[in-house]
Amino acid sequence: MKEDFLHYLWKFEYFNTLDLKTTSGESITIVNVGQYLEQAGPDFFNAQIRIDNQKWAGNVEMHLKSSDWYIHHHENDPAYENVILHVVWEHDVAIYRSDNSIIPVLELKYYVAPKTVINYNVLRSVKSWLYCENQLAGLDQFLLRHWQERLFVERLEQKTKPISNWLTQTSSDWEAVFFWMLSQNFGLNTNGDQFFAIVSSIPFSIIRKEASNLANIEALLFGNAGLLDTEKEDHYFTDLKFRYTYLLQKYQLTKPILAPVQFFKHRPDNFPTIRLSQLAVLWHTHSNLFSKICATNSLDSMYQLLQVTASPYWLDHYHFDKLSPKKNKQLSKPFMDLLIVNTIVPIRFTYAQSHGKDNSQDLVDLLQYLSPEKNGTIDKFNYFGIATTNAFETQSLLQLKKEYCNKSKCLSCAIGIEVIKNI
Question: What InterPro entries has UniProt attached to this entry (predicted)?
């Protein structure tokens, strides 16, 4: 048993509350269980408890054993001076405040139905991938849908944090932040950090000034990526290298020292050469892309804005100075879907929030028209009975796995709570 089980029991009052008594025999009436804040300090804040005829307002702390109070050194922490009730599974020692007054104790194990404890132990006893994997197929669909909506919003809220930091760095330049985010996602998992470093090391004012000249934008991106550091006979390569040297001098820039971009284990269409060229073409075509993205709610219009092809040189190249069979290097629909999910949706959510608006339902509706993402996590959920038909559902399941399943937070999860009630 873990303390989170006690938090779950107290938060939802899943125990017999009719005849509660402290370990010293005083009657307990719960007026308000308090606010559950998963942070340093007592577990529940601003609770209201009536002990005998005295009403108390303060905090509630929980432990498996009363003696855990001393193991965690709460006796030396002023944050615990306002604890009005110590809720434990097993009472083994009296606990005193700094003024030597005793803290009332509720020994919870005498008030919890045996079936609730059994269900909890069953849930947490076997795990191959998820604790609740064998119960997923029979979930109530209304509960699942409601929980998925909450998970999706949580995921968006988490993604607003780096966006907010970037806005601070750029003095609220939304176009610059959008360019940074696009660049990071163009690099995918392998080159995302490198692509972000490449573009963020170039003042966006320069990107704006040079956006009308595609070759100059490519020179800046390829140069900062370290892809122009060698010597080659290729005319396109030598032109980019000449432009890059000139631009560094023109703007008094210093070439950054960055981690090298990776080609290994990438399909050729995801090579950094191709993705950097496509990114340059996109920004050359739409220097005010964020404004255009905000002006449309049409998925087809978003596709049209993102529909770009790498510059002509890359029609028959994947590497500098090395010919390959001709192929049009256009952004594919799955890749554009990835950009919509990981760039457009989060920044539109953050932008709406900055104006005091909630557009989360609009974004849910948008992602329901996108195909579901394909990865090992989603495949596993499908195997255990949660089918996915769109990107909204896959995004919510990725949040579920990362923030709840991986952290064993079953008792903070609507699915885990439902499973314990119905095993």
Answer: DUF2851
d(CA 200, CA 192): 12
pLDDT, one tens digit per residue, over 8-44 is 999 999 999 999 999 999 999 999 999 997 777 899 9
Are residues 176 and 297 both part of a single domain? yes
417 inside domain: no
Among candidates 289, 288, 286, 279, which has minimal Cα distance to 218?
279
The crossing angle, in degrees rounded to 10, of helices 272-285 and 188-200 is 50
pLDDT of residue 322: 94
Please count the CA atoms within 13 angstroms of the CA of 261 that sit on its side-chain side: 31
Which of 187, 198, 349 has its CA nearest to residue 259? 198
Which residue in the block uniquely carries the two structure tokens 């795990």? 127
The number of domains in the chain is: 2
Same domain, 298 and 180: yes
In single-letter form, the type of residue at position 202 comes to I
Q: Are residues 106 and 213 in the same domain?
A: no
Domain boundary among 331, 352, 382: 331
Q: What is the per-residue pLDDT for 260?
A: 95
Q: Are strands 54-65 and 317-319 parallel, antiparallel or unpaired?
A: unpaired
Decide if 223 contacts 244 (C-beta within 8 A): yes
Domain that holds residue 243: 171-331
Q: How far apart are CA 71 and CA 95, in angstroms?
A: 12
> Considering Cα of 379, then 385, then 390, then 394, what sign does the dihedral take?
negative
Domain assignment present for residue 375? The answer is: no
Please report whether residue 323 resides in a domain.
yes
The phi and psi torsions of 250 (rounded to 5 degrees) equal -55, -45
Pick the last residue of a domain from 299, 331, 363. 331
Same domain assignment for residues 99 and 245: no
Separation of alpha carbons 231 and 243, rounded Å: 14
